[in-house]
Each structure stands twice: as structure tokens, then as C-alpha cells.
Write a structure and sequence with these properties.
- It is a single chain.
- With about 425 residues, the chain is an alpha/beta fold.
- It has three domains: about 130 residues, NAD(P)-binding Rossmann-like Domain (Rossmann fold), CATH 3.40.50.720; about 170 residues, Dihydrodipicolinate Reductase, domain 2 (2-Layer Sandwich), CATH 3.30.360.10; about 80 residues, ACT domain (Alpha-Beta Plaits, 2-Layer Sandwich).
- Helices cover about 35% and strands about 25% of the residues.
- The chain has 15 helices and 18 strands.
- Strands 7, 9, 10, 11, 12, 14, 15, 16, 17 and 18 form a ten-stranded mixed β-sheet that branches.
- β1, α2 and β2 form a beta-alpha-beta unit.
- α4 runs parallel beside α5, α5 packs parallel to α10 and α14 runs antiparallel to α15.
- The protein is elongated.
- It starts with 9 loop residues before the first helix and ends with a strand.
- The N terminus is likely disordered.
- Bound molecules: NADP nicotinamide-adenine-dinucleotide phosphate.
- NADP nicotinamide-adenine-dinucleotide phosphate binds next to α2.
């Protein structure tokens, strides 16, 4: 008797044979994009020779400019994306970035049943769900462990180590540029000087808006929300607040309150709609989030059963990010099963119930505190402390009010009436306080 299962069609048998053939040979890898991360991935593949992985193609525009001596002679360098996509490769590693043309290459590869590994947070934040469905329909895998927090394995941690929990809250430092700027400002540096240093060192763009405006962090938060809170959200619904409103005086007041300031991406599910926001926040000096310095990333995931788990490390840079990419490739080579994360579309609210720090800048006159406290009381907001440091001029006097946990919408209404006061010489700065 033959071992052949006679119920399978010749096509299915051929597909299985092809898969078995693939299992027995190394995964053939095409790199799309030979920049900071792409060249680091190639470096690891060539130097460490991880078992089961073979770099076969490198695609980049003007490829002659990119060619290096240290890849094996067998590697094919190309500036023809379609030719590489049609070649005999098992995995397309997309490291060019941006929505297009990268999205088109990824769709084509998945449509052809190939696997895709990417570090492209924008593509995954905006089109991840659709691309994962395409991968599942065509029998391939889409992996993006490097898309959030670079070399910090928070995505594999969510997909595997924490899959048994029910995550209720995400708090994270997801943008290394902002963390570098704010941790230097904490030491006394001025925003503009630190930004210029970050730009000179290559980890802030000439136009830093994506980073300092919170747009980069919100894309990463949207990805984490799907994997952790199981909600598919439109990143555009998460309202980011820039770190550019923070000045030295805020660090000084924060220190007096036992805190510092970090850009935090925060999301939680508290019964009703999912709440999410990104922006500068006051962080208790004893919190691990306050310890993170420089370009470090950190994510705290709070599970219903397991409590808090902290991930931290290098969130950017060629080599750390490449480690996450190669780890995804190894997972594919080891035949890891597709991780199905059930999720459903959801709206996002900006409504949290947390304490706040509010810094006012006023031209001093009698009755200011009474008017501010009156406006807060009208919204049933309790004051926790009023702090005024000496040494500032009467015509531009900064002082701080902290309030007990209150709904974001109530505080917004109170601030709308406060900002109209004749003594206000700048927009009040309102920061959430993490406890
Ligand atoms: N760098 C990090 O620390 C980091 C961390 C986490 C995630 N990521 C993500 O990783 C991806 C790659 O980032 P990266 O820092 O390596 O970027 P990069 O240094 O700018 O490299 C991108 C490479 O792709 C090539 N490329 C871009 N558009 C192309 C096109 N239309 N056709 C052909 N080639 C194209 C670029 O060629 P040219 O040289 O001609 O421009 C460059 O070689 C991005 O999605 C990024 O968000 C990066």
C-alpha cells in the first residue's frame, strides 16, 4: 500500500512538496531597502550566518551606490523591484519605509504567497489589519516585530509571553528622539540646543514634526493597541500633543512635585470606549519611565491577571532594529505558526480620569487664584496643590496647580473659561500625571 493520501489533488500535493522543499533549504531572503536598518540586517545575516537564513537579493534605487564588498558574491543586487518580487525568494524584508511604494511591494509579495518581514510602523499602523488578512488568505506570514520600540521585543512579547493575559493598559516611551530631548532638558539643556544636537547626531530629522509632534509615537501606539487591547483603531483618531510646549520652568516644578517629564503614549480600556493619547506627561521619579534616558524606549503593559510587565532597551538604531528583523526571520525559518490576534474595529476617545498638572503664566494681580479655583470647582474638580516658586517677575509669573483625578472633558471646559482671564499671558499648559 502506498502512503499517498489519495484524497489530495495533484495541485495540493505539488504545493505540499514545494513547501517541504522550502522547509529543507534555507529561507531565501530579499532585502528591500539598504539603508540604516537594511544594511544592519545584511551585516547580521552575513556575519552571524543564522541557521536557515540566506540573503539572496538586495533591492534599492540607484543600487550601484549601495553595493558593498562584504556580502557573498551570490547575492543579486537590483534596482528592479518587480524582478526581485518575481524571483525565487521566500521572504521579502521591507526596510524602505513610508506608505508607498513600500505598501505596493508588500501587497505583491503577500499576494504571491511569500512571507514579509517589515519594520515599517506607518504601513502597519494604517494597513496592518488588511495586510495580515491578505497574508492569511494567501498562506504567507507578515511579521513586524521591529515596528514598535526597535530592538525591544515588545511585539513578540505580546504575541507570545503575554498572550495568556488580558492587557488593560499600555504606557510607553515609544519615541527615542523625544526621550533624548526631554531627558537632556531635565538636566538643564534648552529645547532648541538639544534638538540641534539630536539632528547633528542623526536621530532627529531636519523637520522633527513627526517625532516632537507625537505622530510617530501614535502610529506605534495604534499597533500596540491592536495587539494588546485587541482593538483596530485609526491612528488619526489619537490626538497627539507636542513636546515643544515644555520649558525649563516645567522641569523645575515637576522636580518639586517628585516627578519628571517624558513623552508618553498611553491607552487603556476602562469599561467604555478605549482611551488613547500621546504627549508630554508628568512621571513620578520612582517610576521606571523616569529612569529611561537618551534614545531608550520603554513600554509598561498592565495585565488583568499578571500585573505590570516592563520592556525596555534600544528603541532605534540600525543594529538593535535589525536584531528584531532577524528574530522575525528566524521565527519564520523555525516554522512558527501564524499568531492570530482577534481584534475588532473601535473608536478612540481622549477621555481619561487622571490627575493633572496645569502651569499658568500670568501678569500678577489680586484674585487670580480665586478665579482659577472657582472655574475648577464649577466642574467639580478638586485641587491637590498650588505651587509658586519665588524669583520670577510679577509681569510674567509662572505657577502650577495640580488637580485630583478628573475627566479630561471637565478639565477642558474649566480651562476654556480660565484661558479668557485678562491676566493670562500664555496658553495654560495642561499635562496628565502618571501615578
Ligand atoms: N532607523 C531606525 O532606527 C528604525 C527603527 C525602527 C524602525 N525603523 C523603520 O525601518 C525602516 C527603514 O528605516 P531606515 O532608518 O533604515 O531608513 P533609511 O536609512 O532611509 O533606509 C531606507 C532605504 O530604502 C531605500 N528606499 C527608500 N525608498 C525607496 C524607493 N522608493 N525605491 C527604492 N529604494 C528606496 C533608501 O534608498 P536611498 O538611499 O536612495 O534613499 C534607503 O537605502 C522604516 O520603515 C523605519 O520606520 C527604523
Amino acid at each position: 500500500m502506498s502512503d499517498v493520501n489519495v484524497s489530495e489533488s495533484p495541485q495540493q500535493l505539488a504545493a505540499e512538496a514545494a513547501q517541504e522543499n522550502r522547509r529543507q533549504r534555507p529561507l531565501r531572503i530579499a532585502l528591500f531597502g539598504f539603508g540604516t536598518v537594511g544594511s544592519s540586517v545584511a551585516r547580521i545575516l552575513v556575519e552571524s550566518k543564522p541557521e536557515g537564513l540566506e540573503l539572496t537579493h538586495v533591492f534599492n534605487r540607484d543600487v550601484a551606490r549601495k553595493r558593498v564588498e562584504w556580502t557573498p558574491a551570490s547575492v543579486e543586487w537590483s534596482e528592479n523591484a518587480d524582478a526581485v518580487l518575481a524571483a525565487d525568494v521566500d521572504v521579502v524584508v521591507e526596510l524602505a519605509g513610508g506608505l508607498e511604494p513600500a505598501g505596493g511591494w508588500v501587497r505583491k509579495a503577500l499576494d504571491a504567497g511569500k512571507n514579509v518581514v517589515t519594520a515599517n510602523k506607518k504601513l502597519i499602523a494604517y494597513h496592518g489589519v488588511e495586510l495580515e488578512r491578505l497574508a492569511a488568505a494567501k498562506g504567507g506570514h507578515l511579521k513586524y516585530g521591529a515596528a514598535v520600540a526597535g530592538g525591544v521585543p515588545v511585539i513578540p512579547g505580546l504575541e507570545q509571553g503575554l498572550a495568556g493575559d488580558r492587557i488593560e493598559r499600555i504606557e510607553g516611551i515609544l519615541n527615542g528622539t523625544c526621550n533624548f530631548i526631554l531627558s537632556k532638558m531635565e538636566e538643564g539643556a534648552e529645547y532648541a540646543t538639544v534638538l540641534a544636537t539630536a539632528q547633528a547626531r542623526g536621530f532627529a530629522e531636519a523637520d522633527p514634526t513627526e517625532d516632537v509632534g507625537g505622530f510617530d509615537a501614535r502610529a506605534k501606539l495604534a499597533i500596540l493597541m491592536r495587539l494588546a487591547l485587541r482593538v483596530e483603531v485609526d491612528p488619526e483618531e489619537i490626538v497627539p500633543r507636542p513636546i515643544t510646549t515644555i520649558s525649563a520652568v516645567d522641569f523645575s516644578y515637576a522636580r518639586d512635585l517628585g516627578c519628571t517629564i517624558r513623552q508618553i503614549a498611553r491607552a487603556e480600556r476602562a469599561g467604555g470606549p478605549v482611551a488613547a493619547t500621546v504627549g508630554p506627561m508628568l512621571v513620578d521619579s520612582r517610576s521606571p519611565l523616569a529612569w529611561s534616558r537618551g534614545t531608550e524606549n520603554m513600554v509598561i503593559l498592565s495585565g488583568h491577571y499578571g500585573g505590570d510587565v516592563v520592556f525596555s532597551g534600544h528603541g532605534a538604531g540600525g543594529h538593535p532594529t535589525a536584531v528584531a528583523v532577524v528574530s522575525d526571520l528566524l521565527a519564520l525559518a523555525h516554522g512558527s505558526r501564524r499568531v492570530e490576534v482577534p481584534s475588532a474595529p473601535a473608536g478612540v476617545s481622549g477621555e481619561f480620569e487622571v490627575p493633572h498638572y496645569i502651569r499658568f503664566l500670568v501678569r500678577d494681580r489680586p484674585g487670580i487664584v480665586a478665579e482659577i479655583t472657582g472655574a475648577l470647582a464649577k466642574e467639580h474638580i478638586n485641587i491637590r496643590a498650588i505651587v509658586q516658586k519665588p524669583g520670577y517677575p510679577q509681569h510674567a509669573l509662572p505657577f502650577v496647580v495640580t488637580v485630583e483625578p478628573c475627566r479630561s472633558s471637565a478639565l477642558k471646559r474649566a480651562l476654556e473659561s480660565i484661558r479668557g482671564m485678562d491676566c493670562m499671558i500664555a496658553e495654560p499648559l495642561d499635562l496628565q500625571m502618571l501615578e
